[in-house]
Every structure is written in C-alpha cells, then in structure tokens.
Amino acid sequence: RTQIFDRVCRSTLTFALPTAPAPPFVEPATAYPGDDNYSSVNHVADALVTPATAGHDADCDPFEEESVRAVPAPAVGEARVEDDGGEAGEAGKSSTVLGDTANMSRNSSGFFQGIKSSKYMRSSKAKKPISELAPLEFSGRFAGGVRADLLRRVPLYVSDWTEAFTGGNCMKTTASICFLFFACLSPAVTFGAAFADATDNQLGVIETIISSGMSGLIYSFLSGQPLCILGATGPELAFTVVFYEICQSMEVDFLAARVWQALWCSLFTILVALFDLSACMKVCTRFTEEIFSFLISIIFIVGAFTTLIKLYLADPDVEGDDPAAPANRAKAFLGTLLGLFTYFTAMWCRAFPKRNEATPLVRKLVANYGVTLSILLYSGINYGFRDVDVPCLDMPDEIVPTATLNGTGESRGWFVNPFGDETASGYDTPGVGFIFFTAVPALGLAVLGYLDQNLTTLLINRKDHNLKKGGAYHLDLLVCGIFIYPICGFFGLPFTHAATVRSMSHLMSLMTREDSKNEHGQTVSKVTNVVEQRVTHLGIHCLLLAALGLSAVLTKIPKVVLAGVFLYMGVTALPGVQLYERLWLWLIWDPKKYPQYDYVTQVARKPLHLFTLFQFSCLAVLYALTKVPNPYISVIFPFFIAFLPLIRKLVPKCFPSVWSKEDLKALDK
User: Fold this and answer.
1) Distance CA 551, CA 537 (A)
2) Cα-based distances in Å from 243 to 90, 203, 347, 370
C-alpha cells in the first residue's frame, strides 16, 4: 500500500508541478523516526505537527528557512544505513531499498521533507521547562506562570507552617501577630467608618473587619507570598464611592450591582493570571517601586499627624472662654502626648537590642514586643485619665450587616441577591444592560488590584530583603480572582487588596538585621534572615475576626495610640528607600560630607539631584491625586502608577545630555 501511495503521489506531482528533476533527498539536522520504512504517509503526518511538538525554535523569524543538510540518494538496491543508536540504528543497518519503487518513494519522501523543512512549515525548538521559569517570566503557555508558581511553592508548603516554630522563631512570630493585629484592626475600623459615610451605611465597620479577616484566612492557606497582607485601601474606597454614586444616579440597587462588578473583576483577574500578564511588572524598576513605597509611608505619617491635629479642631471651644474649654484643651494635650509617646516608645524598643542594658533575652523580648507593649502601656495610662474623655476605638456592638431593609429598620441578610430586591432596597434591580455596563468599573477595579498586588509583592521580594522562597505573582492573583472577589461581592463586603505598609510592616517584624561596614567605612544595616511562614498571617486574621466579640475591651484603646502606631509603621518603612536617602542630601550643603552610597560615588552631583527632583515630582503628583476630594479624579491614581515605568523610560530619553546610561544604571538598578 505504501508503494502504491508513493506512485500516486509521484504521478500527481508530475501533473501539478512544472517538469523538473526530482529533488535530491534531504534530511534535516534532527533525524526523524522511521528510517527506511518511514513512508511519505508518515512525512505528511509529521509535517502537520505543531511547532511546540516539533521541537524547533518558535522565536525565530517565521519566514526564515530552516537549515538542512543534503544527503546523496543511494543507488538502486543499495542499503542506506543510519546509526541512530539503539534499536533504530540496528533497524537501519538491516533494511534494504528495493528497485525503482523505492527510488520513487525516496524522491517523494524527500519532497515532503522539503515541505516540512521549508520556511512555511517552520517548527519551534523546545520551550524552557516550566520548573525553570523565573517568577516574572513569560512562559508562552496557557497558565504556565501559575504552574511555575505551584512548582516553586508547593514543595515548601510544609516548611511554611513549621518554620514559624523552629530555629528560635517562635518569639518573633508571636510578637509579629500581636503587632500586626493592632496594625490591621485600626485601618479596618477607620476605612469601615469611611465606607459607611460614603455609601449611606450600605457598607460599614462590621463588613470591613469581616472582609479583611476572611481574605486573610484564604490568603494564608492558598497564596504564594503569605508575607503580603490584604485589606481595605484608599484607592479602593475612592472606586467604591464612584460606583455608589453611579448606582444612585441610575437608581439601581448598589449591593446587587456590586455582585456583578465582583464577578467581572474576578473574570478579568483570572485571565490576567492565566495568561502570565503579571510578567509585565518586570518593566517596573526601582524608580517605580520607591515612589509607591514612599507614597504609602507618607500617607500613614500624614494620617497619624492629622488624627492628632483634629483633637484641636474638633471642639471649637479649645481656646474660648466657655467652661468646657479647659476640658477640651486637656483632651487635646493628653491625646497628643499619648500618640507621640507611643511612637517614641516603640522606636526606643526597636533599638533596644543595640544597647548594653539587660540580658540578651530581655533585649530580644523588648524589641519584638515593643509595639504591643507601647499600646498596652499608654492605653492603661489613658484609662487612668478616663475623665478627660480622649476618643477611643469605635467597635460594633453586634455582628449584623450595617445596611437595613427599606423602610423597616431591620438589618439585611448576609447574602446579596445579584438580581436585586426592590422591596428590600427601594431601587431597581440591575438590568441586562447595566450588568454588562458594570464591566467598565470592574476593569478599573481589576487594574487597581493588579497594581496593588504586584507592586506590594515586588517590594516584599526585593533582593536586599534576602528572601529564600521566592514569589508567586500569578498564583496570588488567581487566588484573589477565584475566591476573594466573588465572596466579597456575594456577601456585600468591601474588596480587599494588598496593603503596602501593613505588608512591609509584617515583613520587617519578621526580619533579622545586622550592622556591617561597607567599603567606604560607613555602617549599613543588612537583612540576614526573614522568617518566611504562614502562621503569622493566619494568626493575625483569626484575631481580627475574634475582635468582633471583644468590642468591650478594644473600645478602651485610644485612637491617638493607634495613630502613634501608624506613625511608627510609616517611619520604619522609609529606611532603605533611596529616594528618601537622596532627599536628605539636599540638606547637606558640602558635597564632601555626603554619605558614601554607591550611587553617590558613581554619579555626578547635578544628574544625581535632577534625578531626585524628577522622581520626587512624580511622587508629588501621585500624592495630590490621593487628596483630590472629587472621587472621579482620584480614581486616576492607580492608572498614573501604571504609567510610571513609561514615564521613567521616556523622560531620560528626552534629555540625553542630563543622564548617561551609566548614571541611570547606578541610580535605578
């Protein structure tokens, strides 16, 4: 049958093609299976294999002809021997080619091999194994990045739980849980109150705490980088306000519309994870990372001082002759002392291991539990002066949804009907057109989650943090898309994203640093170890959910004490940020007294300061966007962050005389 088919092929080609000598038999550099018995039928089938299975270079020019090596056709009746090794080679040695039919078979087979090796039937070489992919490397396969993340993190899953209790890490992990519990509780309460004001109590404190706790529980078990903390953020609040106003203007049930927004956002996020789009974040250099990190630190620092200043502005009679003025002045003064002393005590405890007092164990205890001790100490002092009435933390008395049914005053159910309930909400149910319209704000929300998640994880995984287990960018987004966003939508909870300062505070609470001398004789602090585990993440959010039943105790904590903790978190996140270090150089008039950082010794003074000005200008624009009262303008914030890598690339090219390639490499490596 093979000989008959070869004759038919030869006859067909004779009529179909111009008369020409039969092409010489050619064989590609990579031998194909079959040897002498490999008929033209096999060649046709092999010519249709995909580039991935053919094993050739998929990245080369698709119109580039593959190199082949010509092999002279053997004479009639002469055996062709190919030593492929093993059984294939022995089969080639024992096979013979018979007569003119075999010759035609060779010619036709050579023709089909010519087709296979032509520029139109190009094959690609084997792609890089998934197990060898870097965290931010395109795999070229469907869900290749997610699979690479799983291969990287699954073998370490058991150690993610056991490492918290081995090697003397138990004290550090316990202290981290206590510190981060307060660091996560206060923003949840603060943002919850802001959500309630902005959405007319459709969302509130109870929903924000549950959202943060639930997200943390899921993330602690399933994420690829459990050092990252999820929670409510300022940009998310702005997006929620805009979407609420859109629903109000169109008279559509807000909570029902959020379900569809969550589902669309989930879909976009899953697609981003499955198609390795997190790999686009590799264009973000230190320039973008430090602007984002510095911005979040400034927001925390300014927020802390704003809380203290409000003590003097909330009561109009602080400086008046009203009989209540002395009490108001006492409240403002005591609140200021409590907030500032909480910060100074926490900083003193942080530096205590460098002192000579006490034993090493005591110094370690004070350093690890310094923030928790500060909170307990100054909350106790405030309780001793409880007649002064310093504002304390507001916690819900019962665990019920904040939103109420229309005209009844009863709380809504926990599950939100995606098709709405006109009787319960008083608004129209989302129609088909509005359901598809929610894809537009959901896209912006997905972009926000993409940037928050990946930028925060980039900051955590920076090389100078000396992490050993690596990140899992695609897996983390997939977890958010499959679990967190849909749950938040169906239960009427605020969406959570990676919270940068809380995440960095979590990381720093698990660090061990040592001071050393650099090549210029200056003392620098380097990270020697980080306790990379999941226990702290789980413990923090278990306590966060348990806080719903501890409102009687937590309402004794003054807000100003937590403001001091925010100030501590913002300030301690700044060391190591080169933009922060370069800004301090502006206050040193004598260049000879500059700290001898690497970039100071490698870059001239003018391009150094101009690069700092350029970076600081981008930071100022970003901060201004966060303070715009109009939510429709403030939602531009995450998109401006997305354009920072492009700005970083274009501006130096517009001014090539200002920064050389060597300058940019030193300043932005």
Assistant:
1) 22
2) 73, 13, 41, 41
